[in-house]
Amino acid sequence: MLAARDDIARGTDDVLVVYADIPLIKGATLAAMRSELARGARVVALGFRAADPTGYGRLIECDGRLVAIREHKDASVEERASALCNAGPIAFSGAEALSLLEAVTPDNAQKEYYLTDIVEIANARGFIARSLTADEKEVMGVNDRAQLAAAEAALQDRLRRRAMAEGATLVAPETVTLSFDARIGRDVLIEPNVVIGRGVTIEDGAVIRAFSHLEGARVASGASVGPFARLRPGADIAANAKIGNFVEIKQAAIEPGAKVNHLSYIGDARVGAGANIGAGTITCNYDGFSKHKTDIGAGAFIGSNTALVAPVTIGEGAYVGSGSVITKPVDADALAVARGRQEARAGWAKAFRAKHKKG
Amino acid sequence: MLAARDDIARGTDDVLVVYADIPLIKGATLAAMRSELARGARVVALGFRAADPTGYGRLIECDGRLVAIREHKDASVEERASALCNAGPIAFSGAEALSLLEAVTPDNAQKEYYLTDIVEIANARGFIARSLTADEKEVMGVNDRAQLAAAEAALQDRLRRRAMAEGATLVAPETVTLSFDARIGRDVLIEPNVVIGRGVTIEDGAVIRAFSHLEGARVASGASVGPFARLRPGADIAANAKIGNFVEIKQAAIEPGAKVNHLSYIGDARVGAGANIGAGTITCNYDGFSKHKTDIGAGAFIGSNTALVAPVTIGEGAYVGSGSVITKPVDADALAVARGRQEARAGWAKAFRAKHKKG
Amino acid sequence: MLAARDDIARGTDDVLVVYADIPLIKGATLAAMRSELARGARVVALGFRAADPTGYGRLIECDGRLVAIREHKDASVEERASALCNAGPIAFSGAEALSLLEAVTPDNAQKEYYLTDIVEIANARGFIARSLTADEKEVMGVNDRAQLAAAEAALQDRLRRRAMAEGATLVAPETVTLSFDARIGRDVLIEPNVVIGRGVTIEDGAVIRAFSHLEGARVASGASVGPFARLRPGADIAANAKIGNFVEIKQAAIEPGAKVNHLSYIGDARVGAGANIGAGTITCNYDGFSKHKTDIGAGAFIGSNTALVAPVTIGEGAYVGSGSVITKPVDADALAVARGRQEARAGWAKAFRAKHKKG
Fold first, then answer.
1. ipTM of the complex, rounded to two decimals
2. Considering the entire predicted model, what is its pTM?
């Protein structure tokens, strides 16, 4: 802490010590610690009532004041009988913080500095120290990957409950992964097995179907995504648009009512309102060096299995024949077809099979 | 209830009152309530023994008869000591139903009609009223989205257990979502992370691999679906057929032993017995106005990345070259190829890279 | 057991009896049973302390020695008070095994041979019999599919904890399915909803993103797989290579730094270091009879929606235009394009719509 001596010396505000291995602590708890400082305490330690206190340091109280934090091994039998344990986080009044910290010495068997000594130092100076109690789950420590997963599970439970309380329907909340910053509107329906990554906004009444994966995307009211859809950063799905299965959208605006229903990659593109993108359509946005843009006009129809080689523009209401490779702009209301001519050889398949059966 | 006065007045059958917010109630429980009516009771209320009865109305019994249903706040200390709570559902003898309902009055502090008053009214008339007890979980009430999810989880648990009891193997049942009407045969294997929506039939010995999503589909004996397959309504997967990854089937018959193994969309189609559909095959079934049919004969071979522009017919045993766009019928046993001619420019790529590195 | 009389008669080693319906028993437990034999016991039975012992046979001990195994129905009130139950597995000293087995007779009401009689026979001969205790979960019996799923869940819990203890981060371990033989390195990150089948090796620092499915594959350090990726047997993903969404890799080497980002099928292939495979690329590896190989050189660029008709070779640094069907070899550093010519008909789409609106 003294590495921050210059900042602490300013003494202009409360100093709170929190730990990276206690990731579930709530803002409200930190605010409550500051409130105690505002009410006159100079030191506020956070505790919890442990189901099994063995091994934890204890908060020692007397007449409602915190008088010491005692390591388990140093605690008396009487002190050990208490289940009020030290959670770690501690707050100091800014005016006293530096002076208290400087009074901590390594005069102990381990020759270490114990931040917890500050409680006794404060008491010796006649300052008030107090404790606050948090739920044990909120201050669980993470010491290994299994505990990290348990903390993540606790956070997910919190995030799912918040989303439901705010009006989203999660059919199977235990199968939905939510980022802390997910913004999910009212009457949104989220089916099972969905991952919502960072920076996602889902507006009122949108539907996210099973096996969908969203990051950095917006889904507007009335839009439907999935099953098996992937929205990558910059995917902007407008009202009543529809993104279907095995579809990837990246840095693309899918305008109102447009449909990308199957097996497509739409990247660096605009798909105009009401346009229909056939199954297997690929925007060829990358040439090995740069990304190029595809612009599809409102009401356009892109036949299935089409490659749109960017940069390219498809005009409003234009029609692209299935299986085309489009490299040149298509005018509004025009038809474009770019495919090979179909040729046939009668009986060839029969002969081919016969040859292989012999071989 | 009196909105249904005309129907109730007929008095021809038992009247059961059930609540939309108690979705897990079983048919067997309702049948048991009717049995009590058949045995002479005129009113039958459903109760449950609450783990924590605080706040619930109580069923007040005397000598095996139900004498009243008392709101928690109106119950005596003695009555509150009982954990037998009112679940809500109630049944009346059809002959008495209307007369009992009409006797309910809003003569109380709240000026409301309490259906539960009927128990005391019936007793006053000398009728027998009784209670039946259900499991607390079966009559859990749904008041918010978190409780709705809990009810769904309880239902899923019931459905999964039923499927296993009937002979299906669910590797990780807690990851499988089942519709109430799923028909799942014996020795079916369902891998983790599968969603079975409405109207699905899976016959004996079929395999549904991980990350599959089925709705309105049939999967016959010996067929295999997934991983990452989506069967939409009308998908009919015949015996020993195989549907692989990133494949969508809609309104299509996949006949015995046919294979659609990868990255395909097969809609409004028939795939004949033993046919092989290459990776990336798309049936182009929609022209922006109508859906058209693709018919693929038995034993046909469709090369990869082929677009079949419907309506179109591929004859039995025909062979379609990879990367083709097929717009005209292909005769049985014939070869059809429809692709561009390959052209090369030596050194072009090297020059292209050199230009970009300079730029 | 006497079906194995000839082998048991050799008497050269310990004989352990284990049951197929107790699948979670650990090697360490079997080793501990052998240690007891090595310390002088001739018979060692495995027990567990049952939460609810009703119905289980009891291990009857006296002065630290096992004197009998008693069926629940034959046990005295005193014996039933003990929660030490018979788990089933039992071990014999090899020298005595056959003689003990032959002494078992069907002289009982059921006229059946009880293997458990051996404990009393051994005691009658003055041999030492002992019991060892396992955790109840470890020796849970599987009698139906629901119990099989519970055993699988217990095994998965064990496998996930092992992977985390060995240094992998599982964001949501409860959604990850692991094969018993999965080899997972340090600082591997596994996102939610992943299935790891048999024969998978994931090296240090690799990332497996959500909704991925791996079998028989290797993922090297720094490589990234998914979301929505499927690695089938023979997929070998080298260092820093990247496999993206809706991609299937089968029997293919993806060399260092190569990318297959979207909607592709790469089978029976080599993708050279640093090559870039565009969205929708399909290796057409099967002609209906044989599988053929695709060889893509280092640094090659395959444009999107390309079909590579195997056997075919793409030279180092070559460039294939989007939407091509490649059937002939492409030289190093060359450009190859194989697509139809784009044709346009002005106003066609407008007329097409007008016609359909009339109709």
1. 0.92
2. 0.94
